[in-house]
What does this fold into?
Amino acid sequence: MITPDRTRSLPLQALAWALPLVRERGATLAAVVILSCLGSAAALLPPYLTQRLVDDGIVGGKVELVLQLCAVFLVLMVGGVLIETLSRLSYLKLSAHLLFGLREQVWRHLQTLAPTYYARTRGGEILSRLDGDVAEVQRFALDAPMAVLNGVFSLAVALVLMLSLSPLLTALVFALVPLQVAALILSRPWLERSTHAMRKESAAMSSFFVESLRAMKFIQASNAARRQEAGLRAHHGDYFAALRRSQLASLGAGGLQRVLSGLGVLLVFAVGGALAAAGDLSVGVVVAFIAYTTRAAGPLQTLAGVFMGWQRAKVSLERIRELAAERPTVQSPAQPVPLAHPVRGELRLDAVRFGYGTEAVLEGATLDIPSGTKLALVGASGAGKSTLIDLLQRHYDPQAGRLLLDGVRLDLVDLAELRRQLVVVDQEPVLMPGSIRDNLRFVAPDADETALMRALDLAGLGKLAHAGGLDRPVGAMAATLSRGERLRLALARAILQDPAVLILDETTSGLDLPVAQAIIGAVDRVFAGRTRILITHNLASVGAVDRIVELRDGRLVEPDPVRSAAPLLRVV
Ligand code: ADP
It folds into this structure.
């Protein structure tokens, strides 16, 4: 699991996240390091050999040496290509492992966060962290050490070879390095700010897409398509402005580096050329040196690039750390108290208090629901009925009081076990993309075809199921099913889950009375003798119940006979 550690500096934080994953691929990492060092060495030898070719071979008139050196050049060339291919393949393997590993950790973390987090965070914001920021960190975590290793190695080898050729020219090549470092340090805030702005705009654009796609039908019905296009254009404009600023920052800082290292090369040209013209230096040495100077400029620029890359990665790292700092509101207990099987489904709320902010939604809510009760829960909109269900399914824990299932406090029960025993069917159940079979298997991966068909039959979807319906696609937004069918499919899922407690949260509201009663009839048949809680504002639609409770002013009370439409009640 990805955990934030504010006591660590960002580079150490990045290492703490990346190291365990890189360690899992130790052999690949070793291959990448060895191959890239070999590649760098193969690339550095030719200028040295060129000097021998010119001074000893050509000027010295040794044809045999010229031919021998040409053969060595050929071997180096082919070897270089082979080494580079192998090195890149190994690098790809390592890089993918790190990217996927980091992303899986962030995803695992996201799956533990409470509904309140998802209610206040825009989808695109999460997407951009999950995708763009994780990729940025992964790129840096691998590219940077590789680039530093390669850069330092190449520089060291080049330095040794250059010093052996001419210490004076070597000093000239590195004369401008302090200026390059100063330029980098000065451009740092600029790079960081522009990257931050770009990531923010990119997240805003992702949010725009996520939210608009979900609301497409509403956009069409509201004749808002043109306005949405204008909205997208505005996002594009903002994104482009941020992108341009970020590119300008990179180009500016990178350009300055190139000019400075170009000046170093020019110095070598001028001084080396003058020395060779005066006969104080051999032509071969000057030729080799010019090649080394440009080659040494490469690693220097790479190191500068790493520094600039770090400014970008830092922004992404901070954004991932923010996400990792979001703590789950609940956790499964390390030593859960096992529920006695079969689970009876007896629920108890004892002076429960809960609020999202300072204001309490539930305050002193107390209720006993004996096993097998069919309970109707009524209450005004916003009274806290769905909140109560979220507490029962343990998306949150109460701030005071206790909730118990079969006498065991919910926070002591294994979370997965609790959610297996306490299933909620919503007013608009979530259906996953894929077929009806996929949707059923989502909650019951091991159920066989017979069990799936039985569940669909019991939920009143038998006709659809028998007409090859298991393979029927549900559609990306479950748009190919009617609302009644979606509810029945959700009920079939609940049947497969076989819980001790079933909760219907306004499930049948808005349906024709006969359809609502048919669905409730199916529930009563399948779940007879088990605890059922039906949240409703229309008691007629839930059929006969054992008890009615109203949630009012944060408490569970006997219903107000006027407000709960007493004439419709049929309590058994
Ligand atoms: P009901 O299901 O009875 O209509 P809810 O449980 O959905 O009521 O909401 C109870 C109260 O809590 C409402 O005032 C609602 O605005 C508030 N509420 C619900 N969810 C959140 C949330 N994620 N963050 C803040 N307040 C919330």
Notes: The beta strands are 347-354, 362-369, 374-378, 400-405, 408-409, 422-425, 501-505, 531-535, 547-552, 555-557. The chain has a mean pLDDT of 87. Residues 265 and 293 are 6 Å apart (CA to CA). Residues 116, 119, 356, 361, 379, 381-387 surround adenosine-5'-diphosphate (CB under 6 Å).
